[in-house]
Write a structure and sequence with these properties.
- This protein is of the alpha/beta class.
- Helix content is about 25%, strand content about 20%.
- The chain has one domain: Isochorismatase-like (Rossmann fold), CATH 3.40.50.
- Strands 3-2-1-4-5-6 form a six-stranded parallel beta sheet, sandwiched between helices.
- Helix 3 runs parallel beside helix 4.
- The radius of gyration is 16 Å and the shape is globular.
Length: about 200
């Protein structure tokens, strides 16, 4: 597969936040293992003139996804708390765009495409290809990738820079198959690094 990195590309680092990493309120197993490869990606994407975006859940204390409100999840990523902060080892380059999602109490959004206005940086920059990594494979990564393909973007997911919740056995494997069936291409960080060299 031939990959070309330039200013029409964007890297989307999905929800690499403390609450989704080991020790957090809603930990993804080995979630912190995505940090090093995504740091590498962020550096060479920025060097290639590509847009770097980091998304984050930024919930109010009474968010609809929390069990206390009838949702499926424990309280997590409450805006302004340490759990909502990006993993301390995550290194975003200068000029990276941070997009907060699910900020309203009744707004749930696994994909940043699900909320009006959040995709504006992609439109303004004329982005045509999206590269995605982060947390979690079976939720926000999958939903962002599927939404991107629906919008006609050529979409890649870093197979070695994602981890899943797996609330049910093999959820992540099924998510990968869903993405592939929708036209999402799986790549490795090394393949992208070679394209950027």
């Amino acid at each position: 597969m031939k990959i070309r990195l330039d200013s029409t590309c964007a890297l989307v680092i999905v929800d690499v936040q403390n609450d989704f990493c080991p020790g957090g309120a809603l930990p993804v197993r080995d979630g912190d293992a995505v940090v090093a490869p995504l740091n590498r990606c962020a550096a060479f994407f920025a060097q290639a003139g590509a847009l770097v975006i980091a998304t984050r859940d930024w919930h109010p204390p009474d968010h609809c996804s929390f069990r206390e409100q009838g949702g499926p999840w424990p309280v997590h990523c409450v805006r302004g708390t340490p759990g909502a902060a990006f993993h301390p080892a995550l290194r975003l380059p200068a000029g990276a765009v941070v997009l907060s999602k699910a900020e309203g109490p009744k707004v749930e959004s696994y994909s940043f495409f699900g909320e009006p206005g959040l995709e504006r940086p992609l439109v303004e920059r004329g982005i045509r290809r999206l590269f995605i990594g982060g947390l979690a494979t079976d939720y926000c990564v999958k939903c962002t990738a599927l939404d991107a393909t629906r919008r006609g973007l050529e979409t890649f997911v870093f197979a070695d820079a994602i981890r899943g919740v797996d609330a049910q056995p093999d959820d992540s494997a099924r998510a990968v198959e869903q993405m592939k069936a929708a036209g999402v291409k799986l790549v490795t960080v090394e393949e992208a690094a070679e394209a950027a060299a």
